[in-house]
Amino acid sequence: AMEKSYMSVFLLLIVISCTLAKDVGKKETKETTAKPKLPQTLSRGWGDQLIWTQTYEEALFRAKHSNKPLMIIHHLEDCPHSQALKKAFAEHKDIQKLAEKFILLNLVYETTDKNLAPDGQYVPRILFIDPSLTVRADITGRYSNRLYAYEPSDISLLYSNMQKAQKLLKTEL
């Protein structure tokens, strides 16, 4: 019974924060012309208008309950490869649009979940997890030594991999 009430409170908090986030978004559009919008801290520059989750646990919970795939971007602020990929990702209009159909998480630290580093802890690396919470190890980039690495020149491959993560969702669930 105690667990159920904790879960209810947790869900209530998520609903409230989502509602508040939506309200903030509505207000911002009116004010954008007046003053520049401050970047959303959770996006870390990967797409300030996108909704980002704060923790891996929250992202898994939201993926499972929203039936959306989860896209996890591992990167470091002082890594030139991460910075270059972030710029390409943020400027790619189609990727930004498609990213709205994902639960999004970008991490500047490693998680303890070994499934998120199937072939090592390098950055930048992007993994997809379906709503059944299965890591899609089959959705890879073009490097055989770093399967989940992407470079700015791979942005169209990343886009098609995002489409693949969406398609697999419809056919498998």
Automatic annotation (TrEMBL):
Cleavable signal peptide: 1-21
Localization: Endoplasmic reticulum; Secreted
Keywords: Endoplasmic reticulum, Secreted, Signal
Pfam families: Thioredoxin_7 (PF13899)
Gene Ontology molecular function: any one: dystroglycan binding
ATP-binding in keyword set: no
Cellular component terms per the entry's GO annotation: endoplasmic reticulum; extracellular region
Keyword set includes Transport: no
Family of this protein: Belongs to the AGR family.
PANTHER family: ANTERIOR GRADIENT PROTEIN 2 HOMOLOG, ANTERIOR GRADIENT PROTEIN-RELATED
Descriptive protein name: AGR2 protein
Origin species: Ramphastos sulfuratus
Gene expressing this chain: Agr2
